[in-house]
Amino acid sequence: MKQISVFLENRPGSLFSVLDRLREWKVNLRALSLADTADFGVLRFIVKDPQTVLEQLKNENFTATLTEVLTVGIADQPGGLSSVVGILTKEGLSIEYLYAFVSPEGRGAYVVLRVEDYDKARHTLENAGIPLLENLSL
Predict the structure, then answer these.
(1) 80 lies in which domain range?
(2) How many CA atoms within 13 Å lie on the side-chain side of 73?
(3) pTM, 2 dp
């Protein structure tokens, strides 16, 4: 699955400027994460048509990139995330970051994972029977 990352200055209004554009373009955010450092923030999100949204953002002079991430279904219960992370850890795979969301239809919990070795992580999770989402029904 493709994720958009937008780099933001740490100043009032920078997050709003991105979110307001997405609203104008009628883009529905399906999952998102915001992280920051002293100098900048990174807004990461999943949308229906990431390539089109990326192009729109770049046309508006936002610094944005497209990244391949794994999105996996997990048991919506205590230990659900731990079991998936444990599978990757046993294979020596590092997780760069992750964020989670719950299906609005109540169909379960999901985790977006950025890993150092995408192909090996994908193969490992598939072999363990972990459901991978190729796209969200948006």
Answers:
(1) 70-127
(2) 14
(3) 0.87
Task: List, for residues 66-108, the tens digit of each pLDDT value.
Answer: 999 999 998 888 888 999 999 999 999 999 999 998 876 667 7
Task: Quote the crossing angle between the two packed helices 80-90 and 118-127, to the nearest 10°.
Answer: 120
User: Per DSSP, what are the bridge partners of residue 114?
Assistant: 97
In 10 A of CB 101, how many CB atoms? 17
Residue type, 114: R
For the record, the structure tokens of 37 come out as: 């450092």
- Any long-range contacts for 31-35 (C-beta under 8 Å, 24+ apart)? 31/71, 31/99, 31/101, 31/110, 31/112, 31/136, 32/99, 33/97, 33/99, 33/112, 35/97
Residues 79 and 115 in one domain: yes
